[in-house]
Predict the 3D structure of the following.
Amino acid sequence: MVVNDWLADTRDSYDTVAVSYADQTRDLLDGLPHLRAALRLFAELVDGPVADVGCGPGEVTAVLHDLGVDVFGIDLSPAMIELARRNHPGPRFEVGSMTEPLPTTVSGVIAWWSLIHIPDDQVPVVFGHFHRALKPNGLVQLGFHVGDEARLKTQGYGGHPMRVHVHLRPPERVAQWLRDAGFAVEAQWLLGTDQAVLFARRQ
């Protein structure tokens, strides 16, 4: 895997905050009914194995697994993967990057708030990897911050130092990148004013 400076910064940052991040997000979905609904709908619609790309400590992976989905998690941070394996022994977890081809053919890809660290010029590359890994009619679900700017985050999750760029994007821009990569966008959910979930299928 080729590791660029921004990618190394992202990996090292999440290695640093892994334990604090897991502690702060462990029960987060309990108070987010619309996101839980998005996961249930994804589980209902997908037919076959699913890659949770940028899975972090594995909370979303575990929910999908409990919903009966054949899901595995991938994350750039070895520390995150170690926590995911320890806390969620059911699904499979492995270290990897969405900037590289997925390791196997899948029927679904879910990427919740992990695409936010990918620079604009690399998003089409990532969506190309998703498209090639997905079976025809395979399902993608993306969650991301809404806006039109990039911020450098230097501290987070327990006050630990970080160096990650957080990209906020309009849903329609992300949807157009998906279309350009060969996907049909089926739905765009706006959660409040600053979060979005997109559903798309491989054509």
Remarks:
- The chain has a mean pLDDT of 95.
- The chain has one domain: 5-202.
